[in-house]
Design brief:
Length: about 350
Amino acid sequence: MRELRVALLALLAPIALSGCDAPATPTGPPRCEPQEELGVERRLKEGFRDLAEGDREGAAATFELLLGDEPGHPEALVGLRLATRGEQVVRPKVRAPVAAPKGVIYIAGQAVAVDVPVNTERYRFEERKAMIELARERGLAPEQPPIPRWYRARTDEAGAEVDPTDRAAVVDAVDLIVLHDSRTVTAREAFVYLGTNPGSTHFYVDWDGTVFQTLDLGWEANHVDLTPIDRRSVSVDIVNPVDITSRPPLPPEAADAGITRPLSEFIVIQGEEVQAWGYTEAQKKSLVQLVRALLAVFPQVPAQVPRTLDGSGPAVPRRALGPGAQPVGVVGHLHLFSRAVDPGPGFDWESFGDAIR
């Protein structure tokens, strides 16, 4: 620990002595740094201060933002190595925003700064599993039925287990994002529903645009129930009741917030005409922001949706891609399973595909 503090003080010393507000020296007036250099130095000071105080996640997020703005900055690289204990860090393929991040998502136990607010604590499959295990250990819950298999370690193409705490290995294993609908009115209802069966997901996008991360990205979610897909994908559930005959489109509080959910046109999916509730404007905006953030975290996921040729040119197919298909990029559940229609007729694939590129 003493060696770490000495190293941090050595790195901070030149930073603390620079800038326009540096004290004058006997040999002349203070040297004024360009404004952008002062911004870099302030971020370095903030990152090393977080390290000194033991906030490794906050320090890592600060150094990642700085490296997005100043690739290869030596002090930032040193700080990031210290914050991540020397583990390999995969640089996002898009330039990090200059503005402060709006939230974080968790991958392999590490917080990664993203430009979308994310609630990472409210609904968690890891916590639900731990609570059930504790209740059974204390004799407060029956040992049967078995705890649902909500998640497990990912595997690679050879079937070897991917360490869920190894960020670089997890990033290397993922090349697909799958969109689902929740078939519920709220994210809370969806989490309760999945809690009674083996299904799980990594994210919910609620009716008001709130994004919930429900499972660390290091774990494989049980969302398609096909190992070749689940092991290499991220699951996103967009909250939608789907049913237009008996389920309300939104909870009562949506009216006070001025949020509405449109009814879709009839669209042919899997060869049949389907009509369902569509998505709110808040959901559309949050989904694009979330997917862009995931594309930055997982560089092997291309910013594309399925395309095929029809009479007017490239179009997103509304049917399963067929046996043996190995899609990459962003797909719907409908593209993987011939009896699935989600995310449904109310999802505008063309606009979404344009927005994430």
